[in-house]
Amino acid sequence: MILAGDVGGTKTVLALFAERDGTLALQREEVLTSHEFPTLESAIERFLTGGPAGTIDAACLGVAGPVVDGRWEAVNLPWKLDEATLATTVGAKRAKLLNDLEATGHGMLGLPPSSLVSLQTGVARRGNMALLAAGTGLGEALIVWDGARHLAVGSEGGHVDFAARTDLEVELLQFLRREFGRVSYERVLSGPGILNVYRFLRARSRVPEPDWLRARMAGGDPSAVISESALAERDACCVEALDLFVSIYGAEAGNLALKAFAVGGVFIGGGIGPKIRAKLLDGTFMTAFRDKGRLSPLLATIPVHLALEPRAALLGAAAVAFDMMGGLDGPPKPRALGSAPA
After folding, report:
1. What is the pLDDT of residues 72-107, one digit of tens each?
2. Which helix (H) or strand (E) holds 177?
């Protein structure tokens, strides 16, 4: 039996998988509210006692934030954990902690075509790949080709300095610097980032915010309201904000493709992408992705895919645990996670 998890500041997803005919079959899955537990160990214990578990042979968790020497400390929670404690908690001989984007990278390699939307067909070839995922924060990972298989490598690339490309982006940078001092890409390319871009453009336009929009933003997730209003073309400032957000997203995806030499392809993950799928497909994203001067022809050959599977990190963690057990060469392809098998 395998324990896999996707651990975030808002929610923690835990699941048990069993090996069947060389693949992984979901046995049980639960979504827990992270802040309701004093420690990650207590959340795991709650999950394991909530139903049949059996003997756990390996455990792997994808966790938000850096993992150094097998140790992790959460940024937005009073949680910390190391691999030895994880092994003891679940009674497993093998236990591993991964950065959540590293886990997601492993998960991307096993996704079926039905879980991917092509933003650019490009040229199919073996080589390095890259992953960019905007959600609550901005995650980036490399998926390196070693000549025989792909290896996911986590990073904290979302926290690098934001690089403005246009006069408008220079103004955005100056606006955010006045508030935050240093400005990272995550200040722009994330859920809170959409709100930051909108606030900048609203202040710049000097057009009063409509009452209906203010009321909706006060009663829900402001960034989601901005995106939904933009897609429905209900407010010009929201439309401009989403357009600028997607253009910067495409540009940073192109930056990552160059840094990783990701000729094998680029994945767009995270929770925001599927929600703004129509905007990602209108050309704004890919125009910025390819706009790399003398290397633009190379960027035009790189396949780019939007991932629709929300549990890629969980799948990736399960794949790594399976590999730790001496499973099949390369990442396995876990079965669909719709429901536990009969």
Report:
1. 999 778 999 999 999 999 999 899 999 999 999 999
2. helix 167-180
